[in-house]
Specification:
Helix content is about 0%, strand content about 35%. With about 625 residues, the chain is an all-beta fold. Among the domains are: about 90 residues, no CATH class; about 90 residues, Elongation Factor Tu (Ef-tu), domain 3 (Beta Barrel), CATH 2.40.30.
Length: about 625
């Protein structure tokens, strides 16, 4: 267990030798700024750079950053046409000098200046005196006329064509701009008169449109269309059932839509919502109420099946498990006429209902009397061929020998005394019972598979458990109180026990300077007070100046709690009457801080005239008044 320090540790510039940083396999989520860890998964030394803070929402986890992480080695090689002077960067410290990077090209002739250009062969070459390039290639996108080389000082003109024109926008300096435009198309919109031809009237309609090769409208052809002299129409309607007969609706007649021949019971309402809109909807208010569904094999329910149309289903084909979970008590009757649930499966989970057959089986298998047995050998009495609960070899249980299968509830009664499974801690006498409390396959049972019920019908002796009577008599044995006979306990024993026809006589040894026994605590010098409760409990209390005390740091006299600057401190007045009293100097008091569970911890301990001050680093002020205690001893 680690030793806990609850204040700063100042080594006063001394060395910390052979110390290992806290080894962890992953970065912890808790920590304070500057806390060090060594992550064994990535072999890195890390320091906490973001402290854990449980007060934020969400909680801020600690962040650990590797110490000294960075580039260990820089390797480089010269590239094509490039050289530099420093190619070794291994184990560099401080600033790293990369040296000078230079092109390795040389001049074709002369010196290297702004009249030279770098060719692809890594040579500085001179430009021609007349221009700064040789030529560029000009051609069309379909290569109809081939390509031409445009030499220096030559010009290429861009000219317009059908509905395309070109304009030089910028010609006096770079960048030079050429604008290519589509010619404007003139469209004349004739002003016409709104047409509302009556019966026998005419209108002009477009019959054809032609365009140019460039997609422009060229010709629009129209023709005159005359409306009929007067309207005259009729139409037929029909249903989708065999009982439907086609009906003719003549001009001027009204077509009415009904839910059925009896709209009041069809369950469909039809409403004219506008001049050209009829609304159809299901309406449960228009459906007659059935008194009951008592013919499950012939009564139907209308349902809507997902992804299909409305359908009808026999009541007998609607199953309980196809409904949702119950949200209340399910009654199987009204208390007078009640009904059964039939044909249930046996339960498998804890909350399953049980059947009558299952419950009857549990009751019948609770305890099953299997017979009697000899506890000394494990032989089941009367078994043929011989069967055993257990067998012994050399007076010990032999797990390699055959024994019967054990099922929960199997009951056997002892008819011959002996130790169960040869265990002297489990002596059995006739009338004692054992029953199976765990299932065990044949040849695999052990003592713990059984529960033992001892009848205790035998009379007790000094060495045997049984029925007896315990008396407290006047002592007849030197050095004992009570008891007069029987084998005396010797050495460090406290009790003398003797049995006569089942009666146990107990004697308790009187204590002495060398023998443990019954004694009385008295106050000899006035430094300790003794009080006794009615049950004989002796309570000792310090009545004078004892040398040692255990003081709880609980902000209760003689300790006083304070918190400031991230430090929780407890001031203990050693002159308090509950401690040393008088004018006890704190300088003469030794202190050891420990947890309430008794583990020694290390906090800062300072002293003034009559006070001990115990200080803990506690930035969040989370130390509880029940966490720590201090042992004090006067020198």
């Amino acid at each position: 267990m680690a030793i806990n320090f609850f204040n700063q540790v100042d080594l006063n510039q001394n060395q910390l030798k052979q110390a290992a940083i806290n080894n962890v396999t992953s970065d912890p989520t808790s920590g304070v700024l500057g806390e060090l860890i060594y992550n064994t998964s990535d072999n890195s030394l890390k320091v906490c750079t973001t402290a854990y803070n449980p007060a934020t929402n969400p909680v801020t986890d600690a962040v650990y950053t590797a110490v000294g992480a960075g580039v260990d080695t820089i390797s480089a090689a010269e590239g094509t046409f490039v050289t530099f002077t420093n190619a070794d960067f291994v184990d560099e410290s401080g600033d790293v000098d990369f040296g000078s990077f230079d092109l390795s090209a040389t001049a074709v002739s002369g010196s290297i200046d702004n009249t030279k250009y770098l060719r692809g062969d890594n040579k500085w070459a001179e430009l021609p005196s007349s221009d700064n390039y040789q030529y560029w290639t000009f051609g069309s996108d379909n290569n109809v006329s081939g390509y031409a080389n445009v030499d220096s000082t030559e010009r290429v003109n861009f000219t317009g064509g059908n509905v395309i024109s070109t304009t030089a926008i910028t010609i006096n300096g770079s960048p030079f701009t050429l604008q290519i435009s589509h010619d404007n198309l003139t469209v004349t919109q004739a002003t016409g008169t709104a047409l509302d031809p009556g019966y026998g009237g005419t209108v002009d309609v477009v019959t054809s449109v032609t365009t140019t090769a460039q997609g422009h409208v060229d010709t629009i052809t129209t023709t005159e269309v005359e409306w009929p002299a007067a309207e005259s129409y009729d139409f037929k309607v029909d249903g989708d059932t065999g009982a439907s007969a086609p009906q003719t609706i003549d001009s001027g007649e009204t077509l009415q839509f009904n839910g059925s021949s009896s709209q009041d019971t069809a369950g469909i309402s039809i409403t004219a919502k506008a001049t050209d809109i009829l609304e159809f909807k299901l309406d449960g208010q228009l459906v007659d109420t059935a008194s009951s569904l008592d013919e499950p094999d012939s009564d139907f329910l209308m349902v809507f099946e997902a992804g299909t149309d409305n359908k009808k289903v026999l009541v007998s084909d609607i199953h309980i498990n196809e409904f949702g979970d119950a949200e209340g008590v399910v009654n199987m009757g009204d208390g007078t006429s009640n009904f059964q649930i039939k044909n249930m499966a046996d339960p498998t989970d804890d909350q399953d209902a049980v059947t009558k057959s299952y419950a009857d089986g549990l009751l019948s298998s609770a305890l099953q009397f299997k017979g009697t047995f000899n506890a000394a050998t494990g032989l089941i009495t009367g078994s043929s061929p011989a069967a055993y609960l257990y067998q012994l070899t050399g007076g010990s249980f032999d797990s390699s020998k055959a024994r019967v299968k054990v099922e929960v509830g199997d009951l056997y009664i002892v008819d011959t005394a002996g130790d169960f499974y040869a265990n002297t801690a489990t002596p059995l006498t006739p009338g004692d019972q054992v029953f199976g409390q765990k299932d065990a396959a044949a040849n695999s049972s052990v003592e713990s598979d059984w529960a033992v019920v001892q009848s205790d019908t035998d009379e007790a002796t000094y060495a045997a458990i049984g029925i007896g009577n315990v008396n407290a008599n006047n002592s007849g044995v030197t050095g004992y109180t009570g008891g007069n006979g029987g084998p005396s306990q010797s050495g460090t024993g406290i009790l003398d026990v003797a049995y006569t026809t089942g009666t146990a006589n107990l004697s308790i040894r009187n204590a002495s300077a060398t023998v443990t026994g019954v004694g009385k605590v008295v106050n000899s010098d006035g430094s300790i007070s003794v009080s006794y409760a009615s049950d004989g409990t002796a309570t000792l209390a310090v009545s004078g100046n004892s040398n040692g005390f255990r003081v709880a740091l609980n902000n209760t006299t003689p300790s006083t709690r304070g918190h400031s600057g991230g430090i929780t401190s407890y001031t203990i007045d050693v002159s308090d009457s509950s401690l040393y009293g008088g004018s006890q100097a704190a300088i003469d008091i030794k202190a050891e801080v420990m947890t309430a569970a008794g583990q020694t911890v290390y906090a800062d301990v300072t002293r003034n005239a009559s006070n001990l001050i115990i200080s803990f680093v506690d930035s969040s002020n989370t130390i509880a008044n029940t966490d720590y205690e201090v042992l004090i001893v006067r020198a």
